[in-house]
Automatic annotation (TrEMBL):
GO terms for molecular function: ABC-type quaternary ammonium compound transporting activity; ATP binding; ATP hydrolysis activity. Keywords: ATP-binding, Nucleotide-binding, Transport. This is ABC-type quaternary amine transporter. It is an enzyme of class 7 (translocase).
Length: 267
């Protein structure tokens, strides 16, 4: 069995059993190479679910399997092996401020003790992939917000993980930059075919990027929709004007009534 399997996962942060759990018996299977967006109102558990898949959070009950192997409750060696295959990109880029873009991309390779020449070669290749070869020598504060997120993506891809977990990676950039980052991410994904789980508040972003959009609701955190997006790729920004796109976004929005502000939906 390959891919990601979330099997009946419940998560309670609060032990008070009278309160609804943050995640309630979540079941979700993601195939290798699939791009899945997680959508839902604030506090419905998207980040918790993503962190669970990335081994940063333990389920109260149920299990997470990566390529058929149990992540939850696994030995340290097994966890390390499974998580070596997972890359993270967060809303905050977490770049080291004293290191230039190239050296930041090389960090995970250093951790894995990849020899220096090989590190540089891979880091240069990754920066080229995200269109930032020219910025290799720049420090994070010399880069725009969008460029910093691209460096963070290059860093996450540097050790070639099969799975990329992205938590609102473009939530803090302006609308125009977000559009270009979405185009860029689609191009990279089509080139590299990673399995991507992408948390977002933006309905159009989810529809633009994903093969499947999974909608959650809060209290208890449950999946209320799992919708396949059939718009052909590569999708251009103009795809958002098509009937198919508009019908898909309308259907998703129908699940996102209370709790998702008009401002969030407009992003
Ligand atoms: N470590 C924690 N300890 C206690 N409660 C937590 C913890 N992490 C998350 N929660 C709670 O779990 C719920 C879901 O949080 P989570 O961050 O997963 O939601 P989200 O859908 O990603 O929200 P947002 O869209 O606002 O980022 C929230 O009520 C949150 O307060």
């Amino acid at each position: 069995m390959t891919g990601i399997h979330v099997d009946s996962v419940t998560k309670r942060f609060d032990q008070d059993a009278t309160k609804p759990p943050t995640l309630d018996e979540i079941g979700l299977s993601i195939a290798d190479g699939e791009f899945v967006a997680l959508l839902g109102p604030s506090g419905c558990g998207k980040t918790t679910l993503l962190r669970m898949i990335g081994g940063l959070e333990q389920p109260t009950s149920g299990s997470v399997l990566i390529n058929g192997e149990q992540l939850s409750g696994a030995s340290k060696t097994t966890r390390r092996k499974l998580l070596a295959n997972v890359g993270f990109v967060f809303q905050e880029h977490n770049l080291l401020p004293w290191r230039n873009a190239l050296a930041n991309v090389a960090v995970p390779l250093e951790v894995r003790k990849v020899p220096k020449a090989e590190r540089l070669r891979i880091a240069e290749e990754m920066l080229a992939l995200v269109g930032l070869s020219e910025a290799a020598g720049k420090l994070p504060h010399e880069l725009s917000g969008g460029m910093r997120q691209r460096v963070a993506i290059a860093r996450a891809l540097a050790y070639d993980p099969d799975i990329l977990l992205m938590d609102e990676p473009f939530g803090a950039v302006d609308a125009q930059t977000r559009d270009s980052l979405n185009l860029e991410l689609q191009r990279i994904w089509m080139q590299r075919r990673k399995t991507v789980v992408f948390v977002t508040h933006s309905v159009p972003e989810a529809v633009f990027l994903a093969d499947r959009v999974v909608v959650m609701r809060a209290a208890p955190g449950q999946i209320v929709e799992d919708l396949r997006v059939t718009i052909p790729r590569p999708r251009s920004l103009d795809a958002s004007l098509t009937q198919d796109f508009l019908a898909t976004t309308a259907r998703l929005r129908s699940h996102l009534g209370e709790g998702t502000s008009a401002q969030e939906l407009a992003k």
